[in-house]
Write a structure and sequence with these properties.
- This protein is of the alpha/beta class.
- The protein has 2 domains: 2-129 and 289-331, Rossmann fold; 131-267, Response regulator (Rossmann fold), CATH 3.40.50.2300.
- Helices cover 43% and strands 15% of the residues.
- It is built from 12 helices and 12 strands.
- It has helices at residues 2-18, 39-54, 68-80, 97-105, 131-145, 170-188, 200-203, 210-224, 241-253, 271-279, 290-306, 340-346, and strands at 28-33, 58-63, 85-88, 110-113, 123-129, 157-162, 191-192, 235-238, 263-264, 284-287, 327-330, 333-336.
- Strands 2-1-3-4-5-11 form a 6-stranded parallel beta sheet, sandwiched between helices. The protein has a 4-stranded parallel beta sheet with strand order 7-6-8-9, sandwiched between helices. Strands 10-12 form a two-stranded antiparallel sheet.
- Helix 2 packs across helix 11 (290-306) and helix 8 (210-224) packs across helix 9.
- Bound molecules: beta-D-glucopyranose.
C-alpha cells in the first residue's frame, strides 16, 4: 500500500512538473539535430521549434555538425540544464547509449526523431516515416521504368547502387526495401552491377555526403567506363537526395544530358533534387512532409507532459536492441516531375520561386 501511495505521489509530482500553468515557467524541450549541412534537418529543426513554441514550450534547439561528440555534449548540456523531454535525430544511432543513461536516471523521456536510436533502453517513443515503404517505392520505380519484369539476362540493364550513412539505422530500411524489389533481378542477371558493389556496406555514403557520393560515382564512371557513348549505365539507385545530387553532378560531368540521363532515384524532395527532376536529370524522389512529422512529435511531447496517450500506430517494426519502441510512422509519397507542383508548391512546402 505504502508503495502504491508513493508511486501515485511520484506520478503526480511528474505530471505537475510538466504541466506548465499559465504564468509559470514553460517546460523546456531539448531538440537535437544532426547537422545544418543537409537541407532536411534545417527544415525539421525549424519546424519543431516553431511548433513546440506555439504550444507554449521553451525549446533548446541544437545542431551537432555531424559530429557524434558534439551531439553527446549538447545532450549532456540539455540534460543538466533542465530539459524535461529530449527529441533527438541521431548522427550515429548506436553512439548515444551512455549519455541517454543519464537522461533515464533523471526520468527524462526521449523521443527518437526520424532515425531510431539503437541499444538504449532510454528511448521512449519513435516518430518517423514508413522507411521500408520509401525503399520499396524507389525499387518499384526502377522495376517499372526499366521494364524489369519483361527482361531476361540476355537483355539486361546496367545499374549502380548508393545508400547513406552506415551509422543511420534508416539505411537498413531504405536499402532493404529497395533490395527486396531489385535483388531477385540482380541474382537472375537482369540487373548487372558492373562494379559488383551490391552489399550495403559497399554502397554506403559517409554522412550522406553529396561530395562523397560524387567521388564514388566518379570512380565508378572511370573504373567501369560508363558514359553516353561508352559503357551503358541505365540507372543509379540512390537512397536519398543528398547522395543523388552528387551522383547527378558526376553524371553531368561525364557528359550525360536530359536526353540520355540514367534514372537516378532519391528521397526528401530537396530543392536541388526537385530542380534536377524538373530539368530531367533526376528521375524521382520521395516526399516526406516533415511538417507532419514535426506535428506528430509535438503531439507526443504534449502527451508525455500531460500524461495522456501519445499517437502510436506501430508496435512491431522498430526494435532498437532493447525491445520494440512504440512508433508513429508517417506516410511517404512518391514524387516526380508530374506531381511535384501539387505536392510541394500547392501544399505550401516550397514557393514556386524556390524551385526556379
Ligand atoms: C533521413 C532521410 C535523409 C537522410 C540524410 C535519413 O535518416 O530519413 O530523409 O535524407 O537521413 O539526411
Amino acid at each position: 500500500m505504502k508503495k502504491i501511495i508513493s508511486l501515485v505521489l511520484a506520478a503526480l509530482m511528474v505530471t505537475s512538473a510538466f504541466a506548465a500553468p499559465k504564468g509559470k515557467v514553460a517546460v523546456k524541450v531539448g531538440v537535437s539535430m544532426p547537422t545544418k549541412d543537409l537541407q532536411r534537418w534545417n527544415q525539421d529543426g525549424a519546424n519543431m521549434k516553431k511548433s513546440l513554441e506555439k504550444q507554449g514550450y521553451k525549446v533548446d534547439l541544437q545542431y551537432a555538425n555531424n559530429d557524434v561528440n558534439t551531439q553527446v555534449n549538447q545532450l549532456e548540456n540539455m540534460i543538466s540544464t533542465g530539459c524535461k523531454v529530449l527529441v533527438i535525430a541521431s548522427i550515429d544511432g548506436s553512439a548515444l547509449k551512455n549519455v541517454l543513461a543519464q537522461a533515464k536516471a533523471k526520468k527524462i523521456p526521449v523521443i527518437a526523431y526520424d532515425r531510431l536510436i539503437m541499444n538504449s533502453d532510454a528511448v521512449t517513443y519513435y516518430a518517423t516515416f514508413d522507411n521500408w515503404k520509401v525503399g520499396v517505392f524507389q525499387g518499384q520505380y526502377l522495376e517499372e521504368k526499366l521494364n524489369l519484369k519483361n527482361r531476361t539476362k540476355n537483355d539486361p540493364v546496367y545499374m549502380e547502387l548508393f545508400t547513406g550513412d552506415p551509422g543511420d539505422n534508416n539505411i537498413n530500411f531504405f536499402f532493404g526495401g529497395a533490395m527486396e524489389v531489385l535483388e531477385p533481378y540482380i541474382k537472375s542477371g537482369v540487373i548487372v552491377v558492373k562494379s559488383k558493389q551490391t552489399a550495403k556496406a559497399q554502397c554506403a555514403t559517409l554522412n550522406w555526403s553529396t561530395e562523397e557520393a560524387q567521388k564514388r560515382m566518379e570512380n565508378l564512371i572511370s573504373a567501369q567506363g560508363y558514359g553516353p557513348n561508352k559503357n551503358r549505365l541505365d540507372a543509379v539507385y540512390s537512397s536519398n537526395d543528398s547522395c543523388a545530387a552528387g551522383i547527378t553532378n558526376a553524371l553531368v560531368n561525364a557528359g550525360y544530358t536530359a536526353d540520355n540521363f540514367p534514372l537516378v532515384t532519391g528521397q526528401d524532395c530537396d530543392i536541388t533534387s526537385t530542380k534536377n527532376m524538373i530539368k530531367g536529370i533526376q528521375a524521382m524522389s520521395v516526399f516526406k512532409d516533415t511538417r507532419t512529422l514535426a506535428a506528430k512529435v509535438v503531439e507526443m511531447v504534449d502527451a508525455i507532459c500531460k500524461g495522456t496517450n501519445p499517437p502510436i500506430n506501430d508496435k512491431k517494426t522498430y526494435n532498437n536492441g532493447t525491445g520494440i519502441i512504440p512508433s508513429f510512422l508517417c506516410e511517404p509519397v512518391y514524387a516526380d516531375k508530374s506531381n511535384y507542383k501539387k505536392l510541394l508548391i500547392d501544399s505550401g512546402y516550397y514557393t514556386a520561386k524556390q524551385l526556379q
